[in-house]
Amino acid sequence: MCDACEATLFNIHWVCQKCGFVVCLDCYKAKERKSSRDKELYAWMKCVKGQPHDHKHLMPTQIIPGSDLLDAMHTLREKYGIKSHCHCTNKQNIQVGNFSPMNGVSQVLQNVLNHSNKISLCMPESQQQSAPQKPESNGSSSPGSDVSTDSKLAPPESQSPLHWLADLAEQKAREEKKENKEFALEKQIKEEREQDDPDSPNSRTSPPVSQNNEQGSTLRDLLTTTAGKLRVGSTDAGIAFAPVYSMGTPSGKSGRTMPNILDDIIASVVENKIPPNKASKINVKSEFKEEPKESRKSATDANNRSYSDIPHSWICEKHILWLKDYKNINNWKLFKECWKYGQPAVVSGVHKKMNISLWKADSISLDFGDHQADLLNCKDSIISNANVKEFWDGFEEVSKRQKTKSGETVVLKLKDCPSGEDFKTMMPARYEDLLKSLPLPEYCNPEGRFNLASHLPGFFVRPDLGPRLCSAYGVAAAKDHDIGTTNLHVEVSDVVNILVYVGIAKGNGILSKAGILKKFEEEDLDDILRKRLKDSSEIPGALWHIYAGKDVDKIREFLQKISKEQGLEVLPEHDPIRDQSWYVNRKLRQRLLEEYGVKTCTLVQFLGDAIVLPAGALHQVQNFHSCIQVTEDFVSPEHLVQSFHLTQELRLLKEEINYDDKLQVKNILYHAVKEMVRALKIHEDEVEAMEEN
Q: What is the pLDDT of residue 428?
């Protein structure tokens, strides 16, 4: 566990060799940025004798070496016949380390050199070529001895193995370039012959050849192939760092020792792993790829045939699954098929399983009316602290609502109050009622088998996944119908939102039932939703607009464009989606479609509807009537990648407080995999016991 943020489990991390202080890669980067806010958030404890820790003197450490995890994964998949989705061609390639290069050493070294004013590689080209050849001819000579002969050409700080590593990388790149040029035709002919001969073993087992020569070899490859040269008599070339760290500079006078230099190298690798300016492009796009219409149509048709026993339909051109029977125990099977494509879902009638009297506004006001809470003005986003009873008094009585100086009725929102452990402590009866009523419990329940968060050990501080109570007035009584009760934002985790109560306000200035239906019908609604609106047994509460994660960049660009048109200041680091500062009204949605080709999935949430959204999905909500909604987050295997990238992106933002504390994606992943391995081990032991008997 990281000693700084206390939120991250890790394999590769940084360690103080004196006191054993450990930090994760994110905290290391935060310290390296030297942001005042980072220092405040990630305070580092002192070393021995009260000395502060210098991140430059920490040692990179890897708990599980090399490809052990990949080897174990492929072994288990082969043993139990589990389908593989990775890019490895077969197990043999994993064992021999045939991976495509990820971090070019040449680029890494160049970044280190550009970053440090103390390192200068000014050796002439002829001597650069000869430097790495000396240790090859004499295995007992250290690389430092070669560098020391050129002390007149470089300042003392450059007399280090980094000099030798850089020359080796340059020479290796030149040799590979020359070799590829000479044998390009021969390789092409050989590959064509292997492809033509399906029985050839090389056609199945030969590793893929990287076509990107500019990347060079990986840092791990370079260190493992040269570890024997860096230490006299070394035979353990499989451990990249151990032989290197046992050495210092040969002269003992240089200020830059081997650990300092490798710190710079690996810090550069880490720093370039996820560029901050590209984080938003990495996350949401990675999974939410739009399927061709023909493919999507054939998939939904196949699901209709395979799951004919599950009452369901499709909304928004078959982008959203509607499960009509909340009681059907097989709902999760059809949901799982759609969920892997990042498709949202709606489950109707959930309120029928709940004790609805617990969720009425009067009941909640009676139990918690004396509490203080923050109220959000949905129009201007101003937050004020007030007695909760004032909010609930105006929930269905317009005359008791707050008004502006101009006499306009204010649309207030009581957001996420209570939430998480507070919800469980303050509302135990409602908490139990919610748990037994959650739709798709295999996913949405905190202990659901497909909810990876359920695998966290009991001694862990649980991530804040809810439930949360979200209550807000409707816009039916407001003059401005272009404001949202929840502005456009992206979900970091998977979430289910249940509409448990709809309060139809009474008083002057509100729309009639016919007027509200007309407002709904002005939207671009699916025929199924229009039919539900005309059903007298259905009570509409909120209007949802959902966008595919792949459109996040287009929407961000569009909102920045609108901001400039309205004369608003647009800062380079400003993200209108992260700030949740926009509700995209009907005119803007039309422009978004015409100018950027971004379609909106429009939903009407009726009483008892549970809307399930995947991590990375963008959405906004507008309550027409006053609504009480309960949300519960969960972490599914299908969208863990999105959650990981989104939390990493949030952590890179200076204004975000340590987001890993809220979701703990790495902890969840680690313990979920550990639990799976344990289950497979138990199964293996049981099979062996049966065979022995």
A: 92
Q: What whole-number distance in Å separates Cα of residue 183 and Cα of residue 691?
A: 54
Of 59, 149, 155, 145, the residue nearest 116 (C-alpha)? 155
Q: Amino acid letter at 504?
A: I
Helix/strand/coil for 66: coil
Q: Is residue 70 part of a domain?
A: no
CB 410 within 8 A of CB 474: no
- What DSSP letter does each residue of 478-496 carry, written as one string? SS--S--SEEEEE-SSEEE
Q: Say which DSSP state 62 is in.
A: E
CATH of the domain at 619: 2.60.120.650
Q: Which residues does the chain have with pLDDT short of 70?
A: 7-10, 34-42, 87-305, 508-509, 511, 651-662
On whether the CB atoms of residues 267 and 32 are closer than 8 A, the answer is yes
pLDDT of residue 141: 37
Burial class (CB in 10 A: 0-12, 13-18, 19+), 629: buried
Q: Which domain holds residue 52?
A: 12-62
Closest to 129 measured CA to CA, from 162, 167, 158: 167
List, in sequence order, every residue forming a beta bridge with 22; answer none if it has no partner. Answer: 15
Residue 158 lies in a domain: yes
Phi/psi of residue 624, each to 5°?
A: -85, -45
Query: What would the 3-class secondary structure string for 202-267 be?
Result: HHHHCCCCCCCHHHCCCHHHHHHHHHHHHCCCCCCCCCCCHHHHCCCCCCCCCCCCHHHHHHHHHH
Closest CA to 642 of 347, 339, 296, 345: 339
pLDDT of residue 280: 40
| Residue 238 structure tokens | 């499989």
Predicted local distance difference test score (pLDDT) of residue 174: 58
Burial of 36: CB neighbours in 10 Å, binned 0-12, 13-18, 19+: exposed
